[in-house]
Design brief:
The structure holds 2 protein chains of 2 kinds.
Chain A: H1 5-15, E1 39-45, H2 49-52, H3 56-66, E2 71-77, H4 81-90, E3 108-112, H5 119-129, E4 144-148, E5 164-166, H6 174-181, H7 191-199, E6 206-207, E7 212-216, E8 222-227, E9 236-237, E10 265-268, E11 270-271, H8 281-285, E12 290-291, H9 294-308, E13 312-316, H10 326-337, E14 343-345, H11 353-363, E15 370-375, H12 379-385, H13 391-403, E16 408-415, H14 422-445, E17 456-463, H15 480-493, E18 499-503, H16 506-516, H17 522-531, H18 545-555, H19 559-563, E19 578-579, H20 584-595, H21 613-617
Parallel strand pairs in A: 1-2, 1-3, 3-4, 4-5, 9-19, 10-13, 13-14, 15-16, 16-17, 17-18
Antiparallel strand pairs in A: 5-6, 7-8, 11-12
Helix pairs in contact in A: 5-17, 9-10, 13-14, 14-15, 15-16, 17-18
Chain B: E1 16-24, H1 33-46, E2 63-65, E3 74-84, H2 90-100, E4 105-112, H3 120-123, E5 126-131, H4 142-150, E6 155-160, E7 163-169, E8 174-180, E9 188-194, H5 203-214, E10 225-234, E11 237-240
Parallel strand pairs in B: 3-10
Antiparallel strand pairs in B: 1-3, 1-4, 2-3, 5-9, 5-10, 6-7, 8-9, 10-11
Classes of the chains: A alpha/beta, B alpha+beta.
Amino acid sequence: MSSNPSAKGQLTDILHRVEKPARYLNGEVNAVHKDDTAIRFAMAFPDIYEVGMSHLGLHVIYNELNSIEDVACERVFAPWIDMEAIMREEGVPLFTLESQTEVRRCDLLGFTLQYEMSFTNILNLLDLAGVPLRSADRGPEDPLVVGGGPCAYNPEPIAEFFDFIVLGEAEGLLERIVDHYRTWNRGQESRADYLTRLARSGLPGLYVPSLYQVEYLADGRVEGVEPLVEGIPRRVDKHLVADLDAANYPVRPIVPYIDVVHDRAMVEVFRGCSRGCRFCQAGMIYRPVRERSPERVERLASDILEATGHNEVSLVSLSTTDYTDVEKTLKNLVDCHQDQAIGVSLPSLRVDAFSVGLAQEVQKVRKTGLTFAPEAGTERLRRVINKNVTEEDLYETARGAFEAGWDRLKLYFMIGLPTETEEDLAGIVRLARGVSRIYDEARAEGSGGPRKRPLQLTVSVSSFVPKAQTPFQWEPQDTVERLQEKQGSLRQGLRGRGLRFSWHEADLSFLEAVIARGDRRLGRLLERAWRLGARFDAWSEHFDIGIWMRAFDEEGIDPSFYANRQRDEGEVLPWDHLSAGVSRDFLWSERQQALAEVRTEDCRFTTCSDCGVCPGLGVSIDVRPRGG
Amino acid sequence: MSGRGVVDVAQPEEPQVIRAKFTKGAGREFISHLDLARTWERTLRRAGIRMAFSEGFNPHPKISFASALAVGVQSYGEYMDVEVAQPVPVDDFVSRTNACLPQGIRVLEARPAPAEGRSLMAGINAAVYQWEPEDYPEELSPDAIEAFLSSGPHQVTRERRGKKPRTFDVVPMVNQLKPVPEGEQSRALGMILQVGSQGTLRPEELFEALGRFIDKDITFSFQDLVRLDLLYWKAGNLVSAWLV
């Protein structure tokens, strides 16, 4: 398919008129350019360049697709407001970065579904590309529109905008999808027929929403979701990689010119997490835990550093301190790269002394802050959410950190969790004060070095958003008013020198809760909100709840039906036909355990908790000790 | 015990500073000065050039640049000094960095920096530009330019973030301004303007004053401008940046 010379000719001129023009430029180190290719795959991240380029998944997909000889995967990001205005004014269609090909001329158009608040950006990108919004309205020449990522586990609000959706992990599956695509003769087989054939192909994780009919009860709940044709799965199961060492890895990731959110070499040390926090969608949908071997991790780190020239390498996962060989791997990486001033970083730390020790190792090259996430203010509520940290753990950890010289700490909490009471809120304040007191003691004793200033403590509080495919998928979210009251009381309680309280907009969490557990009827809402001007909703300076409330009103949709309603055990949930492998029975029993304030142990360290993933998907937990 | 222990980063056995002259060509004019610095650090790492680092909590490589270039302007004459921890022959330096630089940025030449020299940033005080628009305004004749430079003051006002705007005369900051080629069919303007610690005259400010003088709006765009070189005042003469 041909590229678009008109976009090329105008581009330089346009770049002189926009903020951060490098967002729209190609030619970064390690970007892949292919001229003659059989298949052009536009890979869209529905946010700006700086956000998208920080996302490891994008590099994984880019590498996976470009390693196929006759496939060109090219990036697309959401143009910022200024660029969009110029594109609309001057009729410049959305183009890919690498070859400036018009997106609508590409064979496939992929969207990563990272967070609900990027959905209006997806509509905006389709529109800027000149691709009809709805699958049903697309013609034979339009690209096949595909989505994947965590929001694929409830894609119903955006289901009508996608031709197909992929559940699960990219490695090993994308090539099979592309190969299947090669069998489509656009001139002879209609799009609908091809999609039916694709859905019947037996490829794992493939969901073609148009082939499933949703029926509703009179009260608005879902009655059932039925396949419309024979030979497609009643329930779509995710695809996953059994052996991470054997999977491709982006060892030559693109090196951005501009400062992106996470500007460093990223090595994923394991996938999945079985800590079992009951609010956490990632902890459910990415199971089971599968580690990369320490040898492979170290090799990848060296290779990526050599290919990129980054001065920092980050060991990423949902909980890197849980990596079996974390201590030795970290030490080896620091030792190996420190003379070139290359730092190692850990994205998240467990609340324990071991983590402080690791942080100290990391600190040798570059100074970093410390962040811990107790999540809730009392041990009772932490038992409810299965975040098994005691108050003593937190104080001991903080003491260790202060004795080691830190004077800045960040604590993460959530409000609005199921069963939360005033006492739990007061617990957040008490923990923050307790940590400050421990610092003052350490300062008075002079341990950790002489200090002039008080502890710099940030208490960051988000509002709980119940997510699909979690034990709390049946639970109501607090109303906006209630969340705001709780934020107000915390603001009162968390005043003091060196103390900073930060929180998320309750309106935004409310909308996120609506969409996260929405059904197909929300497609109309998303389109309406987008037409009314909603985009970049994840950006507080652009988010406008007024637009959304108007859209709810005009579409006759009650948002509290989605956000604030308690579902009962028997209710058909809009995503029940989509599975991450964790059984619904397990999720419900975890919910019951939560209400009974009973812990569930991590299956890596004790017995199987019977979540259903391993037998259901034919895999097992895979931990990799050194030399193993 | 301190968590803020600092490890030894590479320090030179014998300090060697390499000065490199490089281009910032098509496509790369949109990379800001900060982005360019980061790009260089990564390039040198990929090229396996062992840099020397500052000491402290967050060690930085010892790289310094002569003068920031405005975003949107291409250049054939940018300079940088890099202190290396392991001596490297300058020819090697050129070939290894050129093999690793992104398209559009190229090292033209590298030399050892003068042992007794000053820092590039402090030394450089003039920039050579050429402005070549699609249609060269005939009002910008050699005579008109002569008249502009010998009259004045020609004031412009610069807005400054968080500070009061500053008004100043552009003429003393113009070292040279002449149509190229001189005579009837000029199609470009060559200029040498002051840059650096004593003050910088931006080309767009010069054109604002020029436009007012000839009483015609000049369509000035960075697309038509290119920086050719950077110079250094030494004993009353403008000399090459290599001598800083």
